[in-house]
């Protein structure tokens, strides 16, 4: 029986990085070099290599993320492929994975993986992560999960995964939502399914001009005003607690929404949802000022969702609230 075939899309990142003689670490390895560094892949699947970028993920732009999604959708037309692996830097992996998840309607898994240690490290984690990702991509058990992040044996939904440590090999978590599954002793185990709203999956554009503004004690509306006056197309407001601000911020939010600039409120707290409950500059006042509420999404994920939804509204004319709603109820 022949092995399944998967596509490996390489974009750079620490998994393909090495130190220069001067000490700083930079992306260096080609897709072919990365593939050759994990000969055990030949025991898991036949690999079709697609080298898309060779950059650090701190340089990844929304347009680059869109190109990853387009490449996945193009490859998905090939019925001979069992799944897809995207080798990506960890700094912005969660954002790329979520954007792909929003734009991909296929059943075959899209597995994002990378490394915390560069390829010259005495004990690199990249090869093991890449091998696990290939196992997930080739596994029938992973069908229907959409895009996932696979690091250190964990499998996390793209919507929920977030980087929680700068150096630990266990860099990603889904916090209180929990992981989808794991790879243990070479076996893929899926613990639960996940909802996948597909109303944005036909979108083939993003609106990159979305600002993310985080509140802290005593801040006023100056950053919101700067975003509004700077030509942004939308704002994600990472508010306090349950989705609270202060009267000065509320006044600026009202000016934004009156100007047709959507403001999506999320919380700076890592877990839990926002709700329009408090007055005196709190969430209830933000709602009256025209702000939308972003459920349990964290700031960087809400920004990706708003980028896609704004592009979809421009194409279809569908109200923004209607485009966002299925993604905020889960």
TrEMBL record:
Q: Which residues form the Asparaginase/glutaminase C-terminal domain?
A: 209-314
Q: Which reaction does it catalyse?
A: L-asparagine + H2O = L-aspartate + NH4(+)
Please list the residue ranges annotated as the L-asparaginase N-terminal domain: 6-194
Assigned keywords, A-Z: Hydrolase
Q: Does the keyword Cytoplasm apply?
A: no
The EC category is hydrolase
Q: Where are the transmembrane segments?
A: none
Q: GO biological process: what's one of them?
A: asparagine metabolic process
A Pfam family hit? Asparaginase
Q: What does the record give as the active site?
A: 14, 90
Which SMART domains would you find in this protein's record?
Asparaginase (SM00870)
Q: Which GO terms describe its molecular function?
A: asparaginase activity
Enzyme Commission number, as recorded: 3.5.1.1
Residues the record lists as binding substrate: 57, 90-91
Task: Name the source's superkingdom.
Answer: Bacteria
Q: What CDD domains does the entry give?
A: L-asparaginase_II (cd08964)
Q: What does the similarity note say?
A: Belongs to the asparaginase 1 family.
- Annotated protein name in UniProt: asparaginase
Organism field: Rubrobacter xylanophilus (strain DSM 9941 / JCM 11954 / NBRC 16129 / PRD-1)
């Amino acid at each position: 029986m022949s092995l399944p075939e998967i596509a490996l899309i390489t974009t750079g990142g620490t998994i393909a990085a090495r130190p220069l003689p001067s000490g700083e670490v930079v992306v260096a390895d080609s897709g072919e070099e990365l593939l050759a560094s994990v000969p055990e892949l030949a025991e898991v699947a036949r690999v079709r290599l697609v080298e898309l970028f060779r950059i650090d993920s701190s340089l990844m732009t929304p347009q680059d993320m869109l190109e990853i999604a387009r490449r996945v959708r193009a490859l998905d037309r090939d019925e001979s492929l069992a799944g897809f692996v995207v080798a990506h830097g960890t700094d912005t992996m969660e954002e790329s994975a979520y954007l792909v998840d929003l734009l991909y309607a296929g059943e075959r898994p899209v597995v994002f993986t990378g490394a915390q240690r560069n390829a010259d490290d005495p004990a690199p984690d990249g090869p093991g992560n890449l091998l696990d990702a290939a196992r997930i991509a080739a596994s029938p058990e992973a069908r229907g999960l959409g895009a996932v992040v696979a690091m250190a044996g964990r499998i996390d939904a793209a919507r929920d995964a977030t980087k929680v440590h700068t150096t630990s090999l266990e860099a990603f978590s889904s916090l209180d939502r929990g992981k989808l599954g794991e790879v243990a002793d070479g076996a893929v185990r899926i613990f639960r399914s996940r909802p996948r709203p597909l109303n944005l999956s036909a979108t083939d554009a993003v609106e990159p001009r979305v600002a993310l503004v985080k509140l802290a004690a005593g801040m006023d509306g100056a950053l919101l005003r700067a975003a509004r006056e700077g030509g942004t197309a939308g704002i994600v407001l990472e508010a306090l607690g349950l989705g609270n601000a202060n009267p000065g911020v509320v006044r600026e939010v009202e000016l934004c929404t009156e100007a047709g600039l959507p403001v999506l409120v999320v919380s700076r707290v890592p877990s839990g949802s926002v709700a329009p409950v408090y007055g005196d500059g709190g969430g209830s006042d933000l709602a009256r000022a025209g702000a939308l509420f972003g459920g349990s999404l964290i700031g960087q994920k809400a920004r990706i969702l708003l980028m896609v939804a704004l592009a979809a509204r421009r194409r279809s004319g569908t109200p923004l609230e209607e485009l966002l709603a299925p993604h905020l109820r889960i």
